[in-house]
Specification:
- The protein is 34% helix and 12% strand.
- The protein is globular and about 45 Å long.
- The N and C termini lie far apart (50 Å).
- By secondary structure, the chain is an alpha/beta fold.
- The protein has one domain: Domain of unknown function DUF4159 (Rossmann fold, 3-Layer(aba) Sandwich), CATH 3.40.50.
- Strands 2-1-3-4-7-6-5 form a seven-stranded mixed β-sheet.
- Helix 3 crosses helix 4.
- It contains seven helices and seven strands, in the order H-E-H-E-E-H-E-H-E-H-E-E-H-H.
């Protein structure tokens, strides 16, 4: 009898410990980084309230780039501190789309985003929808590519956006080929469920970045036609949604900018909502 009581006590202690560990992990501190365009962006009043969906943003190292009057900067050295390509539009874009998901769906949405570093153990598996911006400049390591592949094959969803023209496509492709060297990138057909989860998106058009306000040009570089492409798993589930030659992130970011045309934000938000709902139901 003594041994049975002692065993029950030990099992109860183990369960309590497990619950406390899970609770502590679930309540990890909210992380913020200085952005490419924004620092000290005001937090929403309810930023500490959890949700069943959170805008998860991929952190990644960038390729070296030239800027007028500067030497090439070795971005690999400090990309994890912010202010590099993965922080473009961050966090204004993320929070605007999160607010739209709250208003347009019944998904309980957290008001603030979550930057995700693939080096952080199993962290990425807590966020089933992952967004990558400016992937025409990314430079994933082999370890990051392997972690992203495992995340996707386990049911995760990756949406990438805001890269333009053939040069940036080739850089993106070199990284994605390390993630999935054996899976083709294909055009997403109009009849695909991802275009019809909440909104019917048969009539899509190219969504420009904020540069449209000043240049009145929709296209950037040689990317004159928008491309909605993807990668499917063995069961026909779309697990990578590739938005090439468009800037949906800017359409979310500037949804409250009276100089940015409403029609572009309207479509960009509808695409984002559809992709999120698809990711959570497929």
């Amino acid at each position: 009898m003594y041994n049975f009581v002692r065993l029950r006590f030990l099992v109860a202690c183990a369960l309590a410990t497990s619950i406390l560990i899970c609770a502590a992990f679930a309540q990890r501190p909210f992380r913020e980084y200085p952005g490419y365009e924004y620092e000290n962006f005001p937090r929403p009043a309810d930023w500490q309230v959890p949700g069943e969906w959170t805008f998860a943003r991929l952190m990644y190292p960038s390729q070296h780039r030239f800027y007028a009057g500067e030497y090439p900067r070795p971005y690999h050295a400090d990309w994890w501190d912010g202010r590099t390509d993965w922080t473009i539009d961050y966090p204004r874009s993320d929070r605007h789309l999160s607010e739209a998901v709250r208003r347009l769906t019944r998904i309980q949405t957290r008001s603030v985003e979550e930057p995700v570093d693939l080096r952080d153990g199993d962290e990425v598996y807590n966020w089933p929808w992952l967004y990558g911006v400016e992937v025409g400049h990314w430079d994933l390591t082999d370890a990051q590519a392997a972690k992203l592949r495992d995340f996707l094959l386990r049911g995760g969803f990756f949406m990438c956006d805001d890269f333009h023209g053939s040069d940036e496509w080739n850089i993106f492709l070199s990284g994605m080929n390390r993630v999935f060297p054996d899976r083709p990138i294909v055009d997403i057909e109009n009849g695909s469920a991802i275009f019809h989860t909440i909104f019917d998106l048969d009539d899509r058009y190219q969504v420009p970045g904020e540069q449209f306000v000043y240049t009145h040009r929709v296209a950037e570089k040689d990317g004159f036609e928008p491309h909605w492409r993807g990668i499917y798993d063995d069961k026909g589930r779309l697990m990578v949604a590739i938005c090439h030659d468009m800037d949906l992130g800017d359409s979310w970011e500037h949804a409250d900018n009276p100089k940015y045309p409403e029609k572009y934000s309207a479509l960009g938000i509808r695409i984002g909502v559809n992709y999120i709902v698809y990711a959570m139901t497929h």
